[in-house]
Predict the 3D structure of the following.
Amino acid sequence: MKFGLRLRGGLLATLIMFGAPVVAPVGAVFVSSSALAQTVQSISVQGNRRVEVETIRSYFKPGPGGRLDQGAIDDGLKALIETGLFQDVRINRGPGGQIIVSVVENPVIGRIAFEGNKKIKDEQLTAEVQSKARGTFSRAMVQSDTLRIAEIYRRSGRYDVRVTPEIIEQPNNRVDLIFTIEEGAKTGVKSIEFVGNNAFSSYRLRDVIKTRESNLLSFLASGDIYDPDRVEADRDLIRRFYLKHGFADVQVVAALTEYDPEKKGFNVTFKIEEGAQYRVGAVDFRSSIPNFDPSSLRGYSRVSVGSLYNVESVEKSVEEMQIEASRRGYAFAVVRPGGDRNFEAHTVSVVFNVDEGPRTYIERINLRGNTRTRDYVIRREFDISEGDAYNRALVDRAERRLKNLDYFKSVKITTEPGSSSDRVILIVDMEEKSTGDFSISGGYSTTDGALAEVSISERNLLGRGLFAKASVTYGQYARGYSLSFVEPYLLDYRVALGLDLYQRQQLANSYISYGTKTLGFSPRLGFSLREDLALQLRYSVYQQEITLPSYLANCNNNLGTSAFNPSPAFAAVNGIDLSSTNGLGCYSDGEASLPVRKELANGKTLTSALGYTLTYNTLDNNKNPTDGLLIDFRQDFAGVGGDVSYLKTVADGKYYAPLVSDIVGIVRLQGGILTKINDDLRMLDHFQMGPNLVRGFAPNGIGPRDLNPFGTQDALGGTKYWGASLELQMPFWFLPKEVGLKGAVYADAGGLYDYKGPTSWTATNEVNVPGCIPSTINPTSTGTCTGLVFDDSKVVRTSVGVGLIWQSPFGPLRFDYAVPLTKGKYDRVQEFRFGGGTTF
């Protein structure tokens, strides 16, 4: 670091400014014993311009009788120097023992400027430095600011930064302070290595840590920037990962960092001593509290005999046991886990000891750093309040909840002694962060084509913890808008209220001949039953209608134009030879299927439904899971008013398990049943399946289908479906982890059956009902519209395929190529499928 001077106003002033030490000078004349009789009013002040005489005198505190002794004068001298207002302070003796305080005031900073900074804005640097415009100039403060600016650049990965402060003297004892910055090139992490890891590969451990290696796409992220604090945090992440998988003796000995001048980056090496992997040999419960049965807490233990020793399971067990003991009236009970290791058998005997803790109460909860978030938003995350017994488990839970809010960069809860020995004060330190998002999203898939979305959202609206989002979508085949609002604490209960208003338009494409318009509103309530179990209740009301081009519903059996032209289906049922008729009937130009035209004739339909979803989630990572179970069970009952009624039940389960060499196995089972209640089922209410059930098939490519060869052969859907899938995901070991590419191989099986929608309807006073044919050969008569013949094959559809998964900076992308092995006669195949999107 260089500390340069731009000299203006003479060399002497500069020497006075920086040459004079801010300590008592060697030549200072201190007061002799004759001055001990002086009072504060006897002090004469020289050299001051901005600081008042009485302010300077106030630093000299007289003793008994209002007299100044030598100690009081020395203390006053030190206090004046420590104010930082003066370059020099001298105390001399005048005539008659008078005390003369001579000061040289520090200049005033006229302005602060930054030159050469391109990567970090002036506003950010101004907020970080302690020197301020119109404030007092201090050389020590400038040196500190210089180091601070350099540290800010190092945090952003620029270790070659050079910061030079320059002083420009101005009239009236004022100066301009200019920081000249040479930013230098970005300094990233060129390699991450692990030493001593045998149980887990380096590839797997790179998933655990936050630091990333530099690559071609690093400019889109910041994980490759060398940050010593992040590397230190990575050590703890690695340790926690091993402890979660049974390695009770693990030690991350060191995280060595070395700058490579040739690569112009850092090499990071983590040294690990794994130790042995342990399983749980026994689980016991003990209590020193009279009349408390510790075995009654067994149901709250997440540790089981024979399982891998998991420190996270032990910690969660302790938390739940301690909270349960508090609920039973033992407010000061403390659960302490213990473990005896059997080094030969590699087992740990876990003991939960319930003891009487110190009788400590919470005197106050002080919040610091929440400049925007309201106090009550933070306090409601606590299950304890002022005056309650101090419970560390509940404090830890509150800290975890505050972090999960994602309103703050950091949250830390500490304790301070209260007004007495049995009182503590909780200090909640927070640092706010931006919670608003504006995004432009784009994507493409073989199903929906090109798609773009513009959205704006706020996770902490008005600092009240509310969530709001508005988005507009426009694409080739899908368009619409949505408005969402969530109140996470309804009526001060831990119940989330959500409101959704949406409008969607699905256009006809190569997979469906018709379009749909949907306008709906849905309020919902969310409950967290446990950390791994959640319940959502919802009510949905939406209006839906079908849109169809006129040429797909223009069947005309007018006698004045031609002889009667029956449909092929009608001809087959009535034994008519189409070769002897004039033309091929009203299907000859590609009519839509009868259920579609019936929906068109019905016009707008209102659906009113109550439903719920029960979710069980033990995944280790929701975005990129490698272990755990995710189960969704949903039911919706339509018929609470509206035009339709049904009961729809859907279950979907996914199980992830790590296998060998970083290969993850995934088993998925899914199924659904649509049950008729009162009214007939609509075609639109049926399940429509394709690659979402068995890959290798087109959207709406599986299940019952209209067989009319001259129509659009629309998929009709089914009331029952099931699916099973087995997939193996593996990394490309020859590529850097940061590229984010994985491969997949899979096999799918499933089926969609039992169409129970309309196959006919009655035409009462119209001959030319859209898409209808009278039931008799006489076209002028009224009757029942018939003619739907469809495939209802029960064949099991199967396929095998390969996939390419890319967790790209542009969002998750997936490419699949699947080949059907078995299929229905009229199923539609789509071997290649692509989907993905991003926010930029």
